[in-house]
Amino acid sequence: QTSLQEQQFMQKINAEEKIEPKDWMPEKYRKNLIRQISQHAHSEVIGMQPEGNFLTRAPSLRRKAILLSKIQDEAGHGLYLYSAAETLGISRDEMIEALQSGRAKYASIFNYPALTWGDMGAIGWLVDGAAIVNQVSLQRTSYGPYARGMIRICKEESFHQRQGYDIMLTLANGTSEQKAMAQDSLNRFYWPALMMFGPHDSESAHSAKSMEWKIKRETNDDLRQKFIDQTASQIEFLGLEHPDKELKWNEERGHYDSGEIDWEEFHNVIAGNGHCNRQRLEHHIKAHEEGAWVREALVAYNAKKQAKQAE
Ligand code: FAQ
User: Fold this and answer.
1) Confidence (pTM)
2) 205 CB less than 6 Å from ligand 1?
């Protein structure tokens, strides 16, 4: 039996009104949001590592400045998202602890290594590209602070996607070695980018409830299909070979049919056994420990300022 509060909550959701931090909400709605938003935040922050690796190896000052600014944006996205999750009554420390102990996940894609400059192109184009498809839909999520965060994040992600595609265009139109590098990056990042959308709808543990509560507005498979469709013509424009040999336009559906994802690989990576899982977490822990003095200094400074004001 649903309570009056729950009925009013559902009426709001159905009327497309946003749920705000002080509104009543079912405990499971709150928990599910904390799970999704905090994992989204962790992805943004861990996601800085593969690209950070190439800051000292960018081929020109211009490329370096662009990459640096893109990576800094990701840090900002992480911070907006942590703040949005904090409005639901969880602390930053608790979220970081869940990440570092392996209880909380982050996007599987960031457990793949970035090996060449071409990967900077493929990450911006495909990883940020997949992120945008998902996040555009989340601009209409039912929780106000999350929806508002997504609007700003999407604007920045579209610059990221373009800078990645620009790298790919340069490589694909360059020497034969550069074109081969672009092809290799596309081959390695295409399938992991499709995995970013999560398991098939039929396997997705949280989708049904998240769709009902309008936390998610489109399903994993529908979003993945959008990404497959938009990427096909982008690959063609680059003059590269499509990594999915089974990709075929389906006139009746008005979409591309595609080959199957290697789900065993997906499950292995999210279980912690990807190429870089251990390295990513170790790096995060090290950076967090080394930054402890900054956090302590901030607390001390604020205490001093408050004591002065109280005088
Ligand atoms: N990787 O029941 P579902 C970015 C987990 S954007 C790892 O379908 P849900 C930008 C899932 O958490 C990337 N884990 O789950 C950037 C759940 O596990 P749990 C981040 C995955 O939540 C670019 C279990 O599997 N974007 O970082 C993955 O309904 C470049 C069952 O799955 C977001 O997070 C995966 N790919 O749907 C930054 C978007 N897929 O929690 C730097 C917001 C599934 O029970 C550089 N999130 N799992 O232990 C979402 O839209 C959703 O959470 C989904 C998953 C669609 C990711």
Assistant:
1) 0.96
2) yes
Query: Is 257 in contact with 248 (CB distance < 8 Å)?
Result: yes
* pLDDT single digits (tens) 225-255: 999 999 999 999 999 999 999 999 999 999 9
CA within 13 Å, CB half, 1? 2
The rounded distance, in Å, linking the Cα atoms of 281 and 115 is: 19
For the segment 186-213, the average pLDDT, to the nearest whole number, is: 98
**Pocket mutation for ligand 1, best pick of 48, 207, 217, 220 (most atoms within 8 Å of C-beta):** 220
ipTM above 0.95, yes or no: yes
Asked whether the CA dihedral 76, 82, 87, 93 is positive or negative, the reply is negative
CA distance linking residue 99 with residue 102, whole number of Å: 5
Q: Which residues pair with 204 in a beta bridge?
A: none
Residues 149/80, Cβ–Cβ less than 8 Å: yes
Query: If you measure from the C-alpha of residue 292 to the centroid of ligand 1, how many angstroms do you get, rounded to a whole number?
Result: 28
